[in-house]
Amino acid sequence: MKNEQIFCLMEKIKDEDYIIATYYVELMQNESIVKKASAFAVGQTLGTWIPVPGIDDAMRERHMGKVVNIYDIPPADLEVSGDEKRKYLIQIAFPIENFGNQFPMMLTTLVGNDASTSIQTKLVDVQFPKKFTAGFRGPKYGIEGIRKLSDVKNRPLLLNMIKPCTGITPEAGAGIFYETALGGVDLIKDDELLGNPAFSEVSKRVKEYKKAARRAFEATGHKTLYVVNITDRVGNMLNNAKNAVDLGADAIMINYSAVGYDVLNYISESIDIPILGHYAGAGLFYESGFSGISSHLVTGKFPRLAGADMVVINTPYGGSNLKHQKYLSTVQQLTLPFYDLKPVFPAVGGGVHPGMVERYMSDLGADIILASGGAVQGHPMGAAAGAKAMRQAMDAVVEGIKMEDAANRHEELKCALDLWGYQKT
Q1: Contacting residues for 403 by C-beta, under 8 A, at least 6 apart
Q2: Strands of 121-127's sheet, edge to edge?
Q3: What percent of the chain stands above pLDDT 90?
Q4: What are the catalytic residues?
Q5: Is the Cβ–Cβ distance between 236 and 274 less than 8 Å?
Q6: CATH class given for the domain over 142-420
Q7: Rounded distance between C-alpha atoms, residue 195 and residue 91, angstroms
Q8: Domain ranges (residues) in the chain
Q9: 3-133: CATH class
Q10: Which is it for the CA torsion 74, 76, 80, 86, positive or negative?
């Protein structure tokens, strides 16, 4: 095999029809990273080093992966003895023609085949050319569209999820919905653990929860949107989504890590209301430092490409030990310019209470959704008071009022801060 068939420079490949994937690899001293990277590029595309009928130079040029870069960590240029393992970042270019504008075969190319059998590696980044992303519609609403739908302009949106997570009837859930909406919640969603069970089918839930939303609006004049979880067997999900739309659901939720990005993409292309993507189960992809896919791809770039308008993400402030930099990187993947794809509304969840509002807004600004569960439903003065406390904390930050001063003005906020504390920035 000719050298230029397996290796190329970034300047040659970056504007052509390839996606460029970056991997982290650890090898023993006596293993050649050049050989490993070369075998990986071939194994993920043509699938064999052994000459077989049909593989010729024309096929190699058109369909074979190419090694673009190999970086030593640390970036040493001289041989160093004594280290048992060596660490590398490698960049491989994969022809888009091999898989087209879709997730299943793209992911098989990136992390299947040799990545699961002959080399332990973690996918840490993917660079997509504009031609590839043009094959995806991405978010239909994005941040601007969700703001218009909710009539909220200058502050974070407040989202609550019905608690208990599961086991309640639509009628019981509607009662919780109503009490919560009275406090000024902008969105109420199902928990990720409640999909379409026999005791609370999607269609029945939408009917009851929308009645509750109308009652709350009549009482307060504040609009609360209902986000229904349609996650189910793949064959049922489009029907669930269409039923939800027909019955007046404001948005739908999909546990994309469980059903797959292509299902999220398919549903997104099939309906016209916003989609909230939930990361439940995503940790299986990124928690290892040596295999899988990095979190900012799993919960950031990929769901944005697949069409989610809002994405629930993990943070370092709840029960997770997610690195702060990874949390920020995920939000950047959701919101920074990405060709023609609209920015996604990040929904931060896990341990969100009034005392954390200033921390999150300091990190991320106002274009976020604060997903507060227990701090709303578990407020000592009731769910409506829990929602009011969250809103009072948001207003204090937006208006530049000290949180302690705001607490002296609002008993709901004071009660919450006394109970859960206040993290100053």
Answers
A1: 355, 358, 393, 396, 397, 413, 417, 422, 424
A2: 66-73, 85-95, 18-28, 121-127, 292-293
A3: 84
A4: 163, 278
A5: no
A6: alpha beta
A7: 39
A8: 3-133, 142-420
A9: alpha beta
A10: positive
